[in-house]
Request: fold
Amino acid sequence: MDVALAWDEAGWERLAPHVGRRRLPVWDCTAGLVVGGGSALMIEAGATLREGAELRTQARGILGGGRRVTHLALTHPHFDHVLGAAAFAGVEVYGAVGLDTLLVKGRDELREDAVRHGVAPDAAAEAADLLVHPHHLVCGEWTLDLGGGVQVLLANVGPGHSGHDLAVLVPGTDSSPEIVFCGDLVEESGEPQAGADAVPKQWPAALDRLLSLGGDDALYVPGHGAVVDAAFVRAQRATLAARFGVS
Reply:
């Protein structure tokens, strides 16, 4: 099957020949997929095991030839981004340093938060019980080679929206710009949410690091909402700096 057709048929938005994303229903969390010559990276796991399984199945359809997701990046430890991780058992999982410990200690809180936001209690409990933790912890930057000349850079840019914010940079090519998956450091469909685990004083600096990764011409993929440009990220940085009283 033609790869471009496969993205569309699977309900994904194609951002580059080898990169796409999907806005998941209900919580509008964005998942991403980067396709290499021999490997494939999924970004985010969804809010439930069912969502995670749907993402993995859709990726197999896009990849074709019996290929599957081999790597999973979790941008931060909120339920709508991580609770589907057990559906990716057997893949290499990446997160910001400290994420593994947090997911162990915060398992009950994750489950409770999911239920508060509308996940069925049984589904939330099952996902939390089976939650897959990161095998690889990113402190600074980590380059993944997906084969076929496709590399991605995982960057620990937080704290900000949470204490463990990871961004994913897909370098540009002659035919496509840099693409930065921002997690919830950037939100387009609503105001950025600052929960109890946010680090407001450092959030603007995390956005500065995102901008330095992607540059002026990159596409920035927020955790929720439409793809934005550097000007949008700068404007959101200014709003957050004013909101939290930092420069």
Summary: Residues 37 and 149 are 7 Å apart (CA to CA). Residues 49-63 form the longest helix (15 residues). The two ends are 50 Å apart (CA to CA). The chain is about 30% helix and 20% strand.
